[in-house]
Amino acid sequence: MNRHPGSLACQNQRPIVALAALLMSVTLAGTANASVSNYYYFPTNSSTTPTNQPAWPTDAQWTAVPGLQTATATSSNPENDYKGSVSSPAVQWYSNATYLYFRTQLRYTAQIIPAYNTPFGNDVFFLMVDKASTTQKIDYSFSWDVQNEQSISRHGLELNRPIADYSNTTVWSAVQFDDADLNNGQKLIPDFDSLSGSFVSTGTDGYIRATQFVTGSTVDNTYIDLAVSWGYLAAATSLTTADLSTMQIALANIHSGNDHTAFKEGAITILGTTPGSTLDTGFSPLIPEPTALVLLGLAGSLVFTRRRS
Ligand SMILES: [Ca+2]
Ligand SMILES: [Ca+2]
Ligand SMILES: [Ca+2]
Asked: Binning pLDDT at 50, 70 and 90, where does residue 288 land?
C-alpha cells in the first residue's frame, strides 16, 4: 500500500503540529538544563573517572529494596538524611556477574563541590549485610569512612566486622565495628584493594561514586553509589550470589565519626528505625520474602484455574 506520507497529517495537521512543537520544547528544555555530575570517592579521590571502573547500572536496572524504599530517617544534616519515595526509592540495588551495586539517596540539594570534605566531611556511612545462614545479625559492613585527611590508602571504602555477636534482639545503640583486617590505620588483607598485600588505587574491588542530577542550578537528587566486586567478596567474605535471595541490608551513618565510633556515641542516623530499637528493625531483604512470592504464585494459579473452568 502506497499511502501518501502526509495523508494522515493532513487530516489533523494543526493539532499534530502543535503537539510536536510542545514535545520538542519539553525535550529541548530537559536536554538544555539537566545534567549529571559524578564525583569518585574511591578508590581514587577525584572527579576524574577512575581507571577500570565497572559499568554502572542504568536507571532502568536499579531495583528498590522493598522495606527501605520509602523509609525515613531524621538528621538535621541534609547530607546525613536518607530520602525515599515510591517513585524515587531511598535504597536500590543491582547485581550482575561481576559486581553487586547499591544506590542510596540523600536529602542533600546543594551541589557537591569537588573537594574531599564537602559536604561529607568527617562522616562515615555504613551499608550492613546480614547473611541469612549465619546467626550473626550483621555479618559485614561496607563502610565509607570519609576522613578529612583524605587518606584513601588508609580509609575510604573499608570492610568491617562487628566487635561482638549480635542478634535480632540486640539494640542498635550497642553496635560497633572493627576492621576486617584488624588494623584501623592501614589497609591490609582482606580490605578493599589490598588483597595483594598493600593498597592500590587502581584496584577493582570496590567503588564509591556520588551522583547528582542537576536541573538548572537546582540539585534534584544526590545519590551515593557503591559497587563491590563478586571476585573480591569471594576472596574476603563468605558472601556469594546464592545469598542474594535471602540477604538483608540496613543503612546507617554517623555525622563526625569513623567506622569504629560506637553507635551510642555518635550522631547516628539509621534508616527506618532508631538507636533504641532492635536490629530486626531497619533490616530489609533485597528480594521480597519467599512467602509473599508463594502467595503471589498461588493467587496466579487460582486466577488461571478460574479462567479455565
Ligand atoms: Ca547472619
Ligand atoms: Ca577507618
Ligand atoms: Ca584496615
From this structure: confident
Q: Cβ of 139: how many Cβ atoms within 10 Å?
A: 22
Question: 204 with 239, same domain?
Answer: yes
Q: Is the pLDDT of residue 152 over 90?
A: no
Share in percent of the chain as helix, strand, coil (round to 5): 20, 30, 50
- The answer to whether 84 and 91 are in contact (CB under 8 A) is yes
**48 or 306, which is more confident:** 48
Query: What is the DSSP track for 124-159?
Result: EEEEEEE-TTSS-S--EEEEEE--TT--TTTSEEEE
Q: For residue 225, give the nearest of 110, 86, 112 by alpha carbon.
A: 112
Give distance in angstroms: CA of 140 to centre of ligand 3: 14
Q: Which residues, chain by chain, have CB under 5 Å from ion ligand 2?
A: 145, 155, 259
Ligand nearest to the CA of 177: 2
Which residues 6+ apart lie within 8 Å of 294 measured at CB?
Answer: none
| Ligand 2 geometric centre to CA of 259 (Å) | 5
Q: pLDDT averaged over the chain?
A: 86
Containing structural domain, residue 26: 1-32
pLDDT at 17: 45
Is residue 26 situated within a structural domain?
yes
Is the same domain home to 26 and 69? no
Per-residue pLDDT of 107-150, as tens digits, reads 999 999 876 678 998 999 999 999 999 999 999 999 999 987 66
> Does residue 18 sit in the same domain as residue 70?
no
**Cell representation of residue 104:** 542510596
**Which comes out higher in pLDDT, residue 118 or 278?**
278
